[in-house]
C-alpha cells in the first residue's frame, strides 16, 4: 500500500507568507490532482510556539538566515513563522482537505527545530508517523510539499531510514534554494529514493 505525505503546505510558506518558498503555491494543484490516487493521505503542519529557538528574533543581534549552533548542531535562523494558532500556520484552504486522514504537527518543542515528519532534528522524539504508516500497511511513501530542500527532503530521508520505499515527487515540491535542492536530490538518490513526477503514478 502506498501513502501520500503532504508536507507543510501552510500560508507562511506560500507567497505573501512570513517565510515564502518561491512559487510554493504551484505545488497545490499538483497535489490536489493526485490525492485520490492514494488510499492514505497524511499531511504535516509546522506548529511552533512563540519564541522558538529557530527564530532569529529569539537571538539578540542575529538576522534571519544566519547560521548558529543550537544543541550542538548547525541551525539556520528563520523569520518567525507557523506560530501556533496564527493564520500563517494554517494549512492552505486551496489544498483539498477531505482526503487527509491524519495531520502531524511538528516543531512544537521550543528548543528543537523539526524539519522531518518523522523526528525532531535531534532524532530524540519521534512523531509516531512511522508506526502509524506500518499499522496501516504502508510500504511506499510518496512525498510532496514544502520546501523541497528542507522539510520535504528530510521527511523523505527519514522515511527511507524507517524502511519504506520512497518516491519524491519533483513536480509536487518547490525548494527555497535551487543549489540546495540539487544537493538534496543527490543525497536522496544515494539513499535509493526515487525522484519522480506525478505523471509517473501508475494508472
TrEMBL record:
InterPro entries (alphabetical) = Isochorismatase-like_dom (IPR000868), Isochorismatase-like_sf (IPR036380), Isochorismatase_Nicotinamidase (IPR052347)
Q: Could you tell me one molecular function GO term of this UniProt entry?
A: metal ion binding
Q: Where on the tree of life does the source sit, at the highest rank?
A: Bacteria
Tell me the Gene Ontology biological-process terms attached to this UniProt entry.
Answer: pyridine nucleotide biosynthetic process
User: Which UniProt keywords are given for this protein, alphabetically ordered?
Assistant: Hydrolase, Metal-binding, Pyridine nucleotide biosynthesis
A Pfam family that this protein carries is: Isochorismatase
SUPFAM superfamilies found in the cross-reference section? Isochorismatase-like hydrolases
Q: In which pathway does it act?
A: Cofactor biosynthesis; nicotinate biosynthesis; nicotinate from nicotinamide: step 1/1
Q: What is its EC number?
A: 3.5.1.19
Q: Which family does it belong to?
A: Belongs to the isochorismatase family.
Official protein name in the record: Nicotinamidase
Q: Which organism is it from?
A: Thermanaerovibrio velox DSM 12556
Highest lineage ranks of the organism? Bacteria, Thermotogati, Synergistota, Synergistia, Synergistales
